[in-house]
Amino acid sequence: MAPPPRDDEQLRTPLFDAMVSLAESRKVSFHTPGHKSGKGIATRFRKFVGPRVFSIDLTTLDEVDSLQNPTGVIKEAQELAAKAAGADRSYFLVNGTTVGNHAMVAATTGPGDKVLIARNCHRSVLTGLIVSGAQPVFFQPLFDRNLKLTLNVTFDTVKAAIDANPDARALLITSPNYYGLCTDIERIIPYAHEHGMIVLVDEAHGPHLKFNPKLPKCALDAGADLCVQSTHKIVGGMTQASMLHAKAGRINIDDVTNTLKLLQTTSPSYILMASLDLARMQMATEGKKLLNRAIKLAEDARTEINKIPGITCFTKEMAKQAGMADMDVTKLTITVSDLGLSGYHVSQMLNTRFGIQVEMADPFHVLVIVSIGDRQEDLTRLVEALKVISAETGLQGALLPLDKVHPPSLTNRFAMTPRKAFYYDTELVPVNRAAGRVCAEIVTVYPPGIPLFVPGEEISADAIEYITNMAGWGAIIDGLNENNSLVRVVKA
Ligand SMILES: Cc1ncc(COP(=O)(O)O)c(C=O)c1O
């Protein structure tokens, strides 16, 4: 059989080409940035990174177009990105998926609107609500006692939320989650649409899904109206570089464009935007091959890790048995608690003794992201290190009492919208005396980053107990003050 025709259009990189051409023209620059192609940059910086990168650290000029009002090479680059993603419009983002979540929420909802949100959302979804003024209605992800992990939301949970809130304007889900676990977008999105809701998907962890059929279906292909992807997290974008993709019909594309103009800088980094242009080209033209290699590396490592006594690594079958629709196999969620060690402890051992840095740890697991940048020797080193840890530790049995690190099921106890709470007079009170008070801050336990206290919501005693236990285990608590002892609440 003849190979499929090569998509030569997707080999183009209009923004990057224009930047190189401008840099090579060596024009005299009497404009920003002040370092003038690196001539004014600190010598130590230039010596370390080399001089060329500064010659493409440009500003908005005719030759390289404007992100705020694209009419030239940025417009072309975004159009190529839209074609590759299957979107009607794609936008380059220079403040990560954070600004994409802000834009998705603020462009489609406003004061008086209700938004159904899976509670495993990133904090940027909640800060987006502060911008928009809409009221969240949360529903819970599944917690699996065997896997000792907060999974994603199930179709039944989302359906129940939709049925109970037929007046909601939008549904926002996060899929895949950090662990690569996917909710059933192929059933959820049509169900929400049938009930008149638009669907926004935080696909921060899924910019690669479109480009390899062995990976779970991506949100746009399942019918999402808007989705945001962290190109920098998983594929070739530089840190902060993300994309927002839109499908016309249920949403107004002009609203998205105008909201991004409000939220994004007027001085975007051209280096970040070029990395998006090139990452799109790379995925569209050789993504399948590159991802095949990453998938194989991850699957082989998973098999080896599952042979190590006391250590297990999730498989797609385990995720499906636990009720998840699918799993991105490039994520290695490694359970270490049967060694009698916490994920935090193993993460630290891997780092300090073996020079291996994992993406994150929780009380029971460490999470490893395998991507197109990894090599066989990296995975071999990980497997060998885990073998040493297992052999040295022996099977000491689970140390952690599950009930103490099981996130509470939080019902909706809103006294006001997140936006109203944000602008209210506030005060700091001791966390252990905050039950029943209306929170004015976002407090998350990271990982998995599920918001436990949300502005406008009454603080629950269960959430306080969970946070206190997790802080004791070494989790990072984001949003509290004074050594995790004080929380900001709305003044009584
Ligand atoms: C699910 C999810 N959404 C959004 C974000 C924010 O993405 P970014 O760091 O690209 O701003 C993160 C970051 O970890 C995330 O995990």
What is the topological layout?
Blueprint: H1 14-24, H2 43-49, H3 52-55, H4 73-85, E1 89-93, H5 96-108, E2 114-118, H6 123-132, E3 135-139, E4 143-144, E5 149-150, H7 155-164, E6 170-174, E7 181-182, H8 185-194, E8 198-202, E9 226-229, H9 231-234, E10 242-246, H10 253-263, H11 270-305, E11 312-313, H12 316-321, E12 326-327, E13 331-335, H13 343-354, E14 360-361, E15 365-369, H14 376-393, H15 418-423, E16 426-430, E17 443-446, E18 450-453, H16 461-473, E19 476-478, E20 486-490
Parallel strand pairs: 2-3, 2-6, 6-8, 8-9
Antiparallel strand pairs: 1-10, 4-5, 7-12, 9-10, 11-13, 13-15, 14-15, 16-20, 17-18, 17-19
The structure holds pyridoxal-5'-phosphate (PLP).
